[in-house]
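hey so i finally got around to running both of the ones u sent me last week. sorry it took forever, my laptop kept dying halfway thru and i had to restart like 3 times lol. anyway pasting them below in the order u listed, first the sequence line then the C-alpha coordinate line for each. didnt double check formatting much so if smth looks off just lmk and ill redo it

first one:
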Amino acid sequence: MIKIEELKFDKDGLIPAIVVDAVTKDVLTLAYMNKESLNITLEKGLTCFYSRSRQCLWLKGETSGNYQHVVSITADCDKDALVIKVEKDGPACHTGAESCFFQPLYISEEKHEFSLRGLYALLTERKEKMPQGSYTTYLFEKGLDKILKKIGEECTEVIIAGKAQDKKETIYEIADLAYHTMVLMVQNGITVDEVQAELASRHVIDHKVKQEKMTK
Protein backbone atom coordinates (compact mmCIF):
# COMPACT_ATOMS: atom_id res chain seq x y z
CA MET A 1 0.00 0.00 0.00
CA ILE A 2 1.43 3.35 -1.00
CA LYS A 3 0.86 6.68 0.73
CA ILE A 4 -0.53 9.92 -0.70
CA GLU A 5 2.88 11.51 -0.12
CA GLU A 6 4.38 9.09 -2.64
CA LEU A 7 2.04 10.19 -5.47
CA LYS A 8 3.34 12.57 -8.12
CA PHE A 9 0.99 15.51 -8.64
CA ASP A 10 1.61 17.81 -11.62
CA LYS A 11 2.75 21.44 -11.44
CA ASP A 12 -0.85 22.48 -10.70
CA GLY A 13 -1.09 19.98 -7.85
CA LEU A 14 -3.35 17.62 -9.80
CA ILE A 15 -3.32 13.94 -10.65
CA PRO A 16 -5.55 12.29 -13.32
CA ALA A 17 -8.07 9.75 -12.05
CA ILE A 18 -9.63 7.18 -14.37
CA VAL A 19 -12.95 6.06 -12.89
CA VAL A 20 -14.03 2.49 -13.69
CA ASP A 21 -17.31 0.71 -12.90
CA ALA A 22 -16.34 -2.09 -10.51
CA VAL A 23 -19.24 -4.23 -11.75
CA THR A 24 -19.21 -3.79 -15.53
CA LYS A 25 -15.52 -2.76 -15.82
CA ASP A 26 -16.61 0.09 -18.13
CA VAL A 27 -14.50 3.25 -18.06
CA LEU A 28 -16.83 5.92 -16.68
CA THR A 29 -14.88 9.15 -16.76
CA LEU A 30 -11.50 10.85 -16.58
CA ALA A 31 -11.30 13.45 -13.84
CA TYR A 32 -8.62 15.15 -11.75
CA MET A 33 -7.83 15.21 -8.05
CA ASN A 34 -5.66 17.27 -5.78
CA LYS A 35 -4.51 16.15 -2.34
CA GLU A 36 -7.54 17.66 -0.65
CA SER A 37 -10.09 15.97 -2.92
CA LEU A 38 -8.22 12.67 -2.63
CA ASN A 39 -8.28 12.92 1.17
CA ILE A 40 -12.03 13.64 1.06
CA THR A 41 -12.49 10.62 -1.21
CA LEU A 42 -10.65 8.39 1.24
CA GLU A 43 -12.53 9.83 4.23
CA LYS A 44 -16.03 9.59 2.75
CA GLY A 45 -15.58 6.56 0.50
CA LEU A 46 -17.12 8.67 -2.29
CA THR A 47 -15.33 10.16 -5.28
CA CYS A 48 -14.44 13.81 -4.91
CA PHE A 49 -12.64 15.63 -7.72
CA TYR A 50 -11.11 18.99 -8.50
CA SER A 51 -12.82 20.88 -11.33
CA ARG A 52 -10.24 22.59 -13.52
CA SER A 53 -12.88 24.75 -15.19
CA ARG A 54 -14.56 25.94 -11.99
CA GLN A 55 -11.37 25.86 -9.91
CA CYS A 56 -13.07 24.12 -6.99
CA LEU A 57 -13.74 20.75 -5.39
CA TRP A 58 -16.82 18.76 -6.37
CA LEU A 59 -18.21 15.69 -4.69
CA LYS A 60 -19.65 13.51 -7.45
CA GLY A 61 -23.40 13.08 -6.87
CA GLU A 62 -23.79 15.93 -4.39
CA THR A 63 -26.21 17.66 -6.77
CA SER A 64 -27.47 14.81 -8.95
CA GLY A 65 -27.55 12.05 -6.35
CA ASN A 66 -25.38 9.89 -8.62
CA TYR A 67 -22.76 9.15 -5.99
CA GLN A 68 -19.81 6.90 -6.73
CA HIS A 69 -18.89 4.55 -3.87
CA VAL A 70 -15.19 3.75 -3.94
CA VAL A 71 -14.17 0.09 -4.10
CA SER A 72 -10.45 0.58 -4.68
CA ILE A 73 -7.85 3.14 -5.73
CA THR A 74 -4.70 2.05 -7.54
CA ALA A 75 -1.75 4.12 -8.71
CA ASP A 76 0.16 3.36 -11.91
CA CYS A 77 3.83 2.36 -12.07
CA ASP A 78 5.02 6.00 -12.10
CA LYS A 79 2.59 6.97 -9.34
CA ASP A 80 1.31 9.89 -11.43
CA ALA A 81 -2.14 8.54 -12.36
CA LEU A 82 -4.93 6.73 -10.54
CA VAL A 83 -7.56 4.13 -11.40
CA ILE A 84 -10.59 4.32 -9.13
CA LYS A 85 -13.06 1.43 -9.17
CA VAL A 86 -16.54 2.42 -8.00
CA GLU A 87 -20.09 1.24 -7.56
CA LYS A 88 -22.30 4.01 -8.86
CA ASP A 89 -25.77 5.14 -7.86
CA GLY A 90 -26.59 6.47 -11.32
CA PRO A 91 -25.16 7.74 -14.62
CA ALA A 92 -21.58 8.95 -14.51
CA CYS A 93 -21.96 11.54 -17.27
CA HIS A 94 -23.65 14.93 -16.91
CA THR A 95 -25.51 14.13 -20.16
CA GLY A 96 -27.30 11.26 -18.45
CA ALA A 97 -25.20 8.59 -20.16
CA GLU A 98 -23.90 5.74 -18.01
CA SER A 99 -20.34 6.61 -19.07
CA CYS A 100 -18.72 9.77 -20.40
CA PHE A 101 -17.18 7.63 -23.14
CA PHE A 102 -19.98 6.95 -25.64
CA GLN A 103 -18.79 8.51 -28.91
CA PRO A 104 -16.98 5.89 -31.06
CA LEU A 105 -14.01 7.08 -33.10
CA TYR A 106 -12.99 3.71 -34.56
CA ILE A 107 -14.42 0.17 -34.45
CA SER A 108 -12.54 -2.73 -36.00
CA GLU A 109 -14.44 -4.81 -38.54
CA GLU A 110 -12.30 -7.86 -37.78
CA LYS A 111 -12.02 -7.82 -34.00
CA HIS A 112 -15.14 -7.80 -31.87
CA GLU A 113 -15.49 -7.33 -28.13
CA PHE A 114 -17.31 -10.04 -26.22
CA SER A 115 -18.94 -9.76 -22.84
CA LEU A 116 -21.54 -11.70 -20.91
CA ARG A 117 -23.68 -8.57 -20.80
CA GLY A 118 -23.42 -8.28 -24.56
CA LEU A 119 -24.52 -11.89 -24.95
CA TYR A 120 -27.36 -11.32 -22.48
CA ALA A 121 -28.51 -8.29 -24.47
CA LEU A 122 -28.46 -10.35 -27.68
CA LEU A 123 -30.48 -13.16 -26.08
CA THR A 124 -32.97 -10.62 -24.74
CA GLU A 125 -33.36 -9.19 -28.24
CA ARG A 126 -33.92 -12.69 -29.63
CA LYS A 127 -36.69 -13.26 -27.08
CA GLU A 128 -38.35 -9.96 -27.98
CA LYS A 129 -38.12 -10.26 -31.78
CA MET A 130 -38.07 -14.06 -32.19
CA PRO A 131 -36.26 -14.07 -35.58
CA GLN A 132 -36.94 -17.17 -37.68
CA GLY A 133 -34.10 -19.65 -38.11
CA SER A 134 -32.46 -18.77 -34.78
CA TYR A 135 -31.66 -21.61 -32.38
CA THR A 136 -32.27 -19.21 -29.50
CA THR A 137 -35.72 -18.43 -30.90
CA TYR A 138 -36.37 -22.18 -31.05
CA LEU A 139 -35.53 -22.53 -27.34
CA PHE A 140 -37.79 -19.65 -26.34
CA GLU A 141 -40.60 -21.04 -28.49
CA LYS A 142 -40.34 -24.45 -26.82
CA GLY A 143 -40.34 -22.83 -23.39
CA LEU A 144 -38.95 -23.46 -19.94
CA ASP A 145 -39.06 -27.26 -19.92
CA LYS A 146 -37.00 -27.47 -23.12
CA ILE A 147 -34.46 -24.95 -21.82
CA LEU A 148 -34.08 -26.88 -18.56
CA LYS A 149 -33.70 -30.16 -20.45
CA LYS A 150 -30.87 -28.67 -22.53
CA ILE A 151 -29.14 -27.41 -19.38
CA GLY A 152 -29.33 -30.91 -17.92
CA GLU A 153 -27.83 -32.38 -21.10
CA GLU A 154 -25.03 -29.82 -21.15
CA CYS A 155 -24.23 -30.50 -17.48
CA THR A 156 -23.75 -34.17 -18.35
CA GLU A 157 -21.50 -33.26 -21.29
CA VAL A 158 -19.35 -31.08 -19.02
CA ILE A 159 -19.00 -33.93 -16.52
CA ILE A 160 -18.01 -36.43 -19.24
CA ALA A 161 -15.43 -34.09 -20.79
CA GLY A 162 -14.07 -33.09 -17.38
CA LYS A 163 -13.76 -36.72 -16.27
CA ALA A 164 -11.83 -37.48 -19.46
CA GLN A 165 -9.53 -34.53 -18.66
CA ASP A 166 -10.04 -33.31 -22.22
CA LYS A 167 -9.36 -29.59 -21.78
CA LYS A 168 -10.50 -28.47 -25.24
CA GLU A 169 -13.75 -30.45 -25.08
CA THR A 170 -14.40 -29.33 -21.50
CA ILE A 171 -14.05 -25.68 -22.50
CA TYR A 172 -16.43 -26.25 -25.41
CA GLU A 173 -19.03 -27.92 -23.20
CA ILE A 174 -18.74 -25.30 -20.45
CA ALA A 175 -19.39 -22.64 -23.09
CA ASP A 176 -22.50 -24.55 -24.20
CA LEU A 177 -23.66 -24.81 -20.60
CA ALA A 178 -23.05 -21.09 -20.02
CA TYR A 179 -25.04 -20.17 -23.12
CA HIS A 180 -28.05 -22.32 -22.19
CA THR A 181 -27.89 -21.04 -18.60
CA MET A 182 -28.09 -17.48 -19.87
CA VAL A 183 -31.08 -18.41 -22.01
CA LEU A 184 -32.71 -19.61 -18.78
CA MET A 185 -31.77 -16.33 -17.09
CA VAL A 186 -33.49 -14.33 -19.84
CA GLN A 187 -36.50 -16.64 -19.75
CA ASN A 188 -36.87 -16.15 -15.99
CA GLY A 189 -35.93 -12.46 -15.89
CA ILE A 190 -32.64 -12.95 -14.05
CA THR A 191 -29.93 -10.43 -14.96
CA VAL A 192 -26.15 -10.78 -15.13
CA ASP A 193 -25.84 -8.09 -12.45
CA GLU A 194 -28.01 -10.10 -10.05
CA VAL A 195 -25.85 -13.20 -10.45
CA GLN A 196 -22.68 -11.14 -10.12
CA ALA A 197 -24.02 -9.48 -6.97
CA GLU A 198 -24.71 -12.91 -5.46
CA LEU A 199 -21.17 -14.07 -6.27
CA ALA A 200 -19.75 -10.83 -4.85
CA SER A 201 -21.67 -11.32 -1.60
CA ARG A 202 -20.17 -14.79 -1.26
CA HIS A 203 -16.70 -13.39 -1.88
CA VAL A 204 -17.18 -10.84 0.91
CA ILE A 205 -18.36 -13.56 3.29
CA ASP A 206 -15.40 -15.76 2.36
CA HIS A 207 -13.01 -12.84 2.86
CA LYS A 208 -14.45 -12.11 6.32
CA VAL A 209 -14.13 -15.77 7.34
CA LYS A 210 -10.48 -15.80 6.28
CA GLN A 211 -9.82 -12.60 8.24
CA GLU A 212 -11.45 -14.08 11.36
CA LYS A 213 -9.31 -17.22 11.07
CA MET A 214 -6.15 -15.12 10.72
CA THR A 215 -6.94 -13.16 13.91
CA LYS A 216 -7.47 -16.30 15.99
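and the second one:
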Amino acid sequence: MWLFLAALAVLFAAALLVVIVVRLQSDGWPEELPALPTTLWISTGILLASAVSMQWALVAIRSGRHRSCVAALLTTLLLAIVFLVLQTMAWFEWTSSLDQAGVLIATNQLAQSTFLVLTGLHAAHIIGGLIPLGLICWYAIIRAYTSQDHVAIRDTAMYWHFLDVVWILLMIFMFIMI
Protein backbone atom coordinates (compact mmCIF):
# COMPACT_ATOMS: atom_id res chain seq x y z
CA MET A 1 0.00 0.00 0.00
CA TRP A 2 2.83 2.38 0.83
CA LEU A 3 4.38 1.91 -2.61
CA PHE A 4 1.03 2.66 -4.25
CA LEU A 5 0.63 5.84 -2.19
CA ALA A 6 4.19 6.88 -3.02
CA ALA A 7 3.45 6.45 -6.74
CA LEU A 8 0.34 8.60 -6.37
CA ALA A 9 2.33 11.21 -4.48
CA VAL A 10 4.76 11.38 -7.41
CA LEU A 11 1.85 11.76 -9.83
CA PHE A 12 0.33 14.66 -7.91
CA ALA A 13 3.74 16.27 -7.38
CA ALA A 14 4.39 16.04 -11.12
CA ALA A 15 1.04 17.68 -11.86
CA LEU A 16 1.86 20.52 -9.49
CA LEU A 17 5.30 20.91 -11.02
CA VAL A 18 3.81 21.11 -14.52
CA VAL A 19 1.40 23.81 -13.36
CA ILE A 20 4.25 25.78 -11.79
CA VAL A 21 6.32 25.57 -14.97
CA VAL A 22 3.40 26.54 -17.20
CA ARG A 23 2.46 29.40 -14.86
CA LEU A 24 6.00 30.76 -14.70
CA GLN A 25 6.68 30.46 -18.42
CA SER A 26 3.36 31.84 -19.55
CA ASP A 27 3.39 35.35 -20.94
CA GLY A 28 -0.36 35.49 -20.97
CA TRP A 29 -1.35 34.36 -17.50
CA PRO A 30 -4.24 36.56 -16.38
CA GLU A 31 -3.44 38.96 -13.58
CA GLU A 32 -6.90 39.24 -12.09
CA LEU A 33 -8.50 35.83 -11.83
CA PRO A 34 -11.73 35.33 -9.92
CA ALA A 35 -11.47 33.90 -6.44
CA LEU A 36 -11.78 30.16 -6.04
CA PRO A 37 -15.44 29.15 -5.86
CA THR A 38 -17.08 28.98 -2.46
CA THR A 39 -18.20 25.51 -3.43
CA LEU A 40 -14.56 24.36 -3.22
CA TRP A 41 -14.35 25.41 0.40
CA ILE A 42 -17.61 23.62 1.19
CA SER A 43 -16.39 20.48 -0.60
CA THR A 44 -13.19 20.67 1.45
CA GLY A 45 -15.29 20.51 4.61
CA ILE A 46 -17.22 17.56 3.19
CA LEU A 47 -13.99 15.74 2.34
CA LEU A 48 -12.60 16.35 5.84
CA ALA A 49 -15.86 15.03 7.30
CA SER A 50 -15.42 11.91 5.16
CA ALA A 51 -11.93 11.50 6.63
CA VAL A 52 -13.42 11.59 10.10
CA SER A 53 -16.09 9.04 9.20
CA MET A 54 -13.51 6.77 7.53
CA GLN A 55 -11.35 6.88 10.66
CA TRP A 56 -14.47 6.22 12.74
CA ALA A 57 -15.08 3.07 10.66
CA LEU A 58 -11.53 1.86 11.26
CA VAL A 59 -11.67 2.51 14.99
CA ALA A 60 -15.11 0.86 15.19
CA ILE A 61 -14.07 -2.36 13.44
CA ARG A 62 -10.87 -2.57 15.49
CA SER A 63 -12.94 -2.45 18.67
CA GLY A 64 -15.51 -4.94 17.36
CA ARG A 65 -18.36 -2.45 16.88
CA HIS A 66 -19.64 -3.82 13.60
CA ARG A 67 -22.77 -1.67 13.26
CA SER A 68 -20.81 1.52 13.90
CA CYS A 69 -18.30 0.47 11.26
CA VAL A 70 -21.03 -0.07 8.67
CA ALA A 71 -22.65 3.28 9.52
CA ALA A 72 -19.32 5.07 9.24
CA LEU A 73 -18.44 3.43 5.93
CA LEU A 74 -21.83 4.28 4.43
CA THR A 75 -21.42 7.85 5.70
CA THR A 76 -18.02 8.04 4.03
CA LEU A 77 -19.46 6.74 0.77
CA LEU A 78 -22.27 9.30 0.85
CA LEU A 79 -19.88 12.15 1.66
CA ALA A 80 -17.61 11.12 -1.21
CA ILE A 81 -20.50 11.33 -3.63
CA VAL A 82 -21.50 14.73 -2.23
CA PHE A 83 -17.88 15.88 -2.65
CA LEU A 84 -17.92 14.89 -6.33
CA VAL A 85 -21.21 16.69 -6.93
CA LEU A 86 -19.81 19.82 -5.29
CA GLN A 87 -16.64 19.54 -7.38
CA THR A 88 -18.72 19.44 -10.55
CA MET A 89 -20.61 22.51 -9.39
CA ALA A 90 -17.30 24.26 -8.62
CA TRP A 91 -16.02 23.55 -12.13
CA PHE A 92 -19.06 25.19 -13.68
CA GLU A 93 -18.99 28.05 -11.16
CA TRP A 94 -15.34 28.92 -11.77
CA THR A 95 -15.59 28.57 -15.54
CA SER A 96 -18.59 30.88 -15.51
CA SER A 97 -16.83 33.42 -13.29
CA LEU A 98 -13.86 33.46 -15.70
CA ASP A 99 -16.21 34.26 -18.57
CA GLN A 100 -17.96 36.98 -16.56
CA ALA A 101 -14.63 38.51 -15.53
CA GLY A 102 -13.85 39.11 -19.18
CA VAL A 103 -10.53 37.27 -19.09
CA LEU A 104 -9.11 36.98 -22.61
CA ILE A 105 -9.84 33.67 -24.35
CA ALA A 106 -6.22 32.40 -24.55
CA THR A 107 -5.39 33.21 -20.93
CA ASN A 108 -8.82 32.06 -19.82
CA GLN A 109 -8.18 28.62 -21.30
CA LEU A 110 -4.77 28.32 -19.66
CA ALA A 111 -6.05 29.25 -16.20
CA GLN A 112 -9.18 27.18 -16.65
CA SER A 113 -7.17 24.16 -17.79
CA THR A 114 -4.90 24.44 -14.79
CA PHE A 115 -7.86 24.50 -12.41
CA LEU A 116 -9.64 21.65 -14.17
CA VAL A 117 -6.53 19.45 -14.38
CA LEU A 118 -5.72 19.76 -10.68
CA THR A 119 -9.25 19.31 -9.41
CA GLY A 120 -10.04 16.72 -12.08
CA LEU A 121 -7.02 14.61 -11.23
CA HIS A 122 -8.10 14.55 -7.61
CA ALA A 123 -11.73 13.85 -8.54
CA ALA A 124 -10.61 10.92 -10.71
CA HIS A 125 -8.88 9.42 -7.69
CA ILE A 126 -11.95 9.96 -5.54
CA ILE A 127 -14.02 8.16 -8.19
CA GLY A 128 -11.41 5.38 -8.19
CA GLY A 129 -11.67 5.24 -4.41
CA LEU A 130 -15.43 4.75 -4.61
CA ILE A 131 -14.84 1.24 -5.95
CA PRO A 132 -12.96 -0.16 -2.94
CA LEU A 133 -15.11 1.96 -0.64
CA GLY A 134 -18.27 0.44 -2.10
CA LEU A 135 -16.79 -3.05 -1.83
CA ILE A 136 -15.77 -2.68 1.79
CA CYS A 137 -19.21 -1.25 2.57
CA TRP A 138 -20.78 -4.36 1.06
CA TYR A 139 -18.40 -6.71 2.85
CA ALA A 140 -18.96 -4.87 6.13
CA ILE A 141 -22.72 -5.22 5.70
CA ILE A 142 -22.40 -8.99 5.23
CA ARG A 143 -20.07 -9.08 8.26
CA ALA A 144 -16.94 -10.15 6.42
CA TYR A 145 -14.68 -8.12 8.72
CA THR A 146 -13.69 -8.73 12.30
CA SER A 147 -11.63 -6.80 14.81
CA GLN A 148 -8.66 -9.00 13.84
CA ASP A 149 -9.29 -9.16 10.07
CA HIS A 150 -9.95 -5.77 8.49
CA VAL A 151 -6.95 -5.09 6.23
CA ALA A 152 -9.17 -3.83 3.39
CA ILE A 153 -10.73 -1.22 5.66
CA ARG A 154 -7.29 -0.17 6.92
CA ASP A 155 -5.86 0.13 3.40
CA THR A 156 -8.88 2.01 2.10
CA ALA A 157 -8.62 4.37 5.07
CA MET A 158 -4.95 4.98 4.24
CA TYR A 159 -5.88 5.79 0.64
CA TRP A 160 -8.72 8.04 1.76
CA HIS A 161 -6.53 9.96 4.20
CA PHE A 162 -3.89 10.32 1.49
CA LEU A 163 -6.50 11.91 -0.80
CA ASP A 164 -7.52 14.24 2.02
CA VAL A 165 -3.95 15.44 2.49
CA VAL A 166 -3.51 15.84 -1.28
CA TRP A 167 -6.70 17.89 -1.47
CA ILE A 168 -5.58 20.23 1.31
CA LEU A 169 -2.24 20.73 -0.48
CA LEU A 170 -4.03 21.31 -3.80
CA MET A 171 -6.31 23.90 -2.20
CA ILE A 172 -3.33 25.74 -0.72
CA PHE A 173 -1.53 25.54 -4.04
CA MET A 174 -4.52 26.80 -6.03
CA PHE A 175 -5.13 29.58 -3.54
CA ILE A 176 -1.55 30.78 -4.01
CA MET A 177 -0.90 30.03 -7.68
CA ILE A 178 -4.20 30.50 -9.48
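quick thing i noticed on the 2nd:
The two ends are 32 Å apart (CA to CA).
anyway thats it, ttyl
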